[in-house]
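Ticket #4471: structure export looks truncated?
Reporter: QA, pipeline team
Priority: medium

Steps to reproduce: submit the single chain below to the structure queue and open the exported record.
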Amino acid sequence: MLIGMEPRIFLYALVGVAVAVSLALEKRLVTAPISPPILLVALGWAVFSLPLDLGWLNPAFDTRLATMVEYATELIVIVSLLGVGLAIDRKYLWKEWKQIAPLLWLAMPLCIAGVAWMGWAWLGLAPAAALLLGACLAPTDPVLARAVQVGPPGESCRDDVRFNLSAEAGFNDSLAFPFVYLAIALSMSSLDTDMFVKWFGVDVVWRIGAGYGVGWLTGKVAAWIVFRRSRGDDGDDGPGFFEGREGLLVVALLFIAYGVAEMIEGYGFIAVFIGAVTTRQCERRHELHKRTHGFIEQIESLMLVAILIFFGGLLASGVLGALTWWSAALGAVILLILRPLAGILAMSRSGLPWRARGAVGFLGIRGLGSIYYLSYGQVNGNFENLEVLWSTVAFVVLLSIIIHGVTASGILRYLEKRNLTNAKDTGGSVM
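Actual output as written to the record:
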């Protein structure tokens, strides 16, 4: 280590440099066959591989480190869901959102079942661990999927491919949670009828409903405060109590939504996403939405740089040490076969052209949400073969960062140039 410099000080400086370089390269890499996440993970791996005494990062053998990973990834998922929800310009109507329903009730369960079966049959995992692996690897990640999501508020032309991937990422991080809870319950005891009924009633029905309700109510309250009270008590356009700080207020209220939803045993992730979407529906053309989204995007970018460098540190610390050929095959199958086929099947009645359906299926990016679920399961459950689980999940995330980082922008440009991004049987304007 450099003389007089502690490892954490060096890491602060490294993150600062990485953020500055990422900002400088962001636009230059838009059409390049490489993405910023690839470079950041490579940087983290390279730095942690040097003899700088930066620490040994392998949460499979350290519950305290797993807890830190859980908290860090939880926070960035919350921030990312805020940004995704505020970016979606589409009216919150069933006819506008119905395309994504099969991705949630068909594609994701198929992925959970397929990965769980492979974890049991190929990796020799116990049923509880196999189910946890399926729940971890099923959701499309809202953090690393930024490149395939809709644009900032007010700038999004109608694009069903980007919308489907954005809305799916917003919803499915919460909808995978019931299966994480089921895996945790299985790791503690055997499955019986009472356990299943309780799981369905509490972890599926109540937690989803409570999260949705808290999010909708918070979104309405946030919109009322920002667009009514912040203009002055008399309703005019004069200065109000929150003038100039409305974006920060929206973020604060939606963080409250997460906390309230979790305190009443609802899903905080779905509360944040629904809250952001509900807020976006009010005063749809107001420039505040764009300012708030930009504020959130900057916070997310800073956090993402730090966490991707940390992920590279995990790789350098041997988190892939238990990786086998079967684990690698599982990763390739889910990214190249299982998720694409499940996505195409889910989109079969969407009205999208076949190439667009294939893009929705293929671009189901796996990322930091998967790491969050695994660390949450480790901290709250009693699972064996944690090193196998961590190796497999880390490999899938790494493989997704590489494959989708190289192909995503090219695929979307191809579809957009040929006007293949919209369903033929849906209409209506974005605004």
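Status: closed, not a bug. The export was complete when the record was re-opened. Leaving a note from the reviewer for reference: The longest helix spans residues 193-227.
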